[in-house]
Amino acid sequence: MDGQNSDESKQNTADMTVFVQNLLQQMQSRFQTMSDSIITKIDDMGNRINELEQSINDLKAEMGVEGSSSPLDPSKQKSDEAKQDAGSA
């Protein structure tokens, strides 16, 4: 009987090992798929941001505002900051 239990125990251990290895491989595959999907989406977002920046620069050039790095005029920015400081005091 002990020999039979020992063989059965070894078989159960082998079956469990195969099951766990398969499970880990499936998880690895799913994580890799998700990772690839996330990286692709981040790349797409980066491309869209670059296109948006180019469109904004094109519009600024059309309007003759080329060279201004801020969407707000610096003097307007300072007056807005002063208003915020006065409101918080």
Structure description:
This protein is an all-alpha fold and 89 residues long. The termini are far apart. It has two helices and no strands. The model has no long low-confidence stretch (mean pLDDT 82).
Order of helices and strands: HH
Q: Poorly predicted ranges (pLDDT <50, ≥5 residues)?
A: none
**Molecular shape:** rod-shaped
Helical segment count = 2
Mean pLDDT: 82
Helix content: over 70%
> What's the number of extended β-strand segments?
0
Q: Hey, roughly how much beta strand do the residues contain? A: under 5%
Instruction: Quickly give the structural class.
Output: mainly alpha
Please give the alpha-carbon distance between the first and last residues: 87 Å
Radius of gyration: 31 Å
**What does the main sheet amount to?**
none
